[in-house]
Amino acid sequence: MMSFASFRGQWNLMEPGNITRISKFLLLGFSERPELQPLIFGLFLSMYLITVFGNLLLLLAVSSDSRLHTPMYFFLANLSFVDICFTSTTVPKMLWNIQTQTKVITYEDCITQMNFFITFAGMDDFLLSVMAYDRFVAICHPLQYMVIMNPRLCGLLVLVSWVTSVLHSLSQTSMVLWLFFCTEVEIPHYFCELNQMILLACSDTFLDNLVMYFAAMLLAGGPLVGILYSYSKIVFSIRGISSAQGKYKAFSTCASHLSVVSLFYCASLGVYLSSAATQSSRSSATASVMYTVVTPMLNPFIYSLRNRDIKRALKRIVGIQCYKNQSSKG
């Protein structure tokens, strides 16, 4: 049983005079050296513009070509939209801070950024799992594909992904609202990441860490297990195909998705496992770039370069635009 002295000591730590809710944080970014700021600004601005332009182009290609109105491309279009939102929650604020030479982010903006970041990260996770299930049905049950993956089921899968991601984000953000920070907190990151916020709090964070890692295991591990199960069935089914051409055709439909899954999970799991083991915040911030910026930037290229349907739709869009420009000049 807790003694009166220890209880009193904990109560004193919680007095308003000792702990107050601060109104702002400082995002330290990648480096505090002034000569590196233009290089960092140019690099991240380029990656952000490529991400937005590439994913918007992919969205336009899927929406404008009726031959791409299938479950696989429906999920791909949703992934492109989520990737734009995912990157937009972190990079513009960092670019603004570099441009204005300030590191300040208000408490409200930090909580809002964290909420949207967790939501879109969860959506990325769930959509990759749903796309793996789509490939499983297409390869293992090709004759029943259009019956199983009907529009109602596709819409329901995306809706459930959104609802689960939003509820998970609200639960995690609500925990942070109960944390206290003793002084003006310097976050050694370029955005308000949940893990870093819990590490920097001066109140008891045992329950927060417990809930955070349990939710990560459940909501990240669950879809990962689903992806691994789907691809184990896919591999078993491909092995049963007699012709080498048939095997190659079946595997080629999964290659792009496998590449994106590998990038996303290797980068995100690497960041959280390394931060938990080493507590190196700077290295964690650098590693986070892989799944927060690089992966969303590469997704349109991975899916379009190996996909003839996407390339045909993009050529059609570019051809129409060129024709309009020539007509206007004529």
TrEMBL record:
The keyword Ribosomal protein does not apply. One of its GO terms (molecular function) is olfactory receptor activity. The chain crosses the membrane at residues 39-60, 72-91, 111-133, 153-171, 210-229, 250-273, 285-305. Keywords: G-protein coupled receptor, Membrane, Olfaction, Receptor, Sensory transduction, Transducer, Transmembrane, Transmembrane helix. Gene3D superfamilies: Rhodopsin 7-helix transmembrane proteins. PROSITE patterns: G_PROTEIN_RECEP_F1_2 (PS50262). It is a multi-pass membrane protein. Residues 54-303 form the G-protein coupled receptors family 1 profile domain. Its main location: membrane. InterPro entries: GPCR_Rhodpsn, GPCR_Rhodpsn_7TM, Olfact_rcpt. The keyword Hydrolase does not apply. It is found in: Membrane. CDD domains: 7tmA_OR7-like. One of its GO terms (cellular component) is membrane. Putative odorant or sperm cell receptor. This is Olfactory receptor 7A17-like.
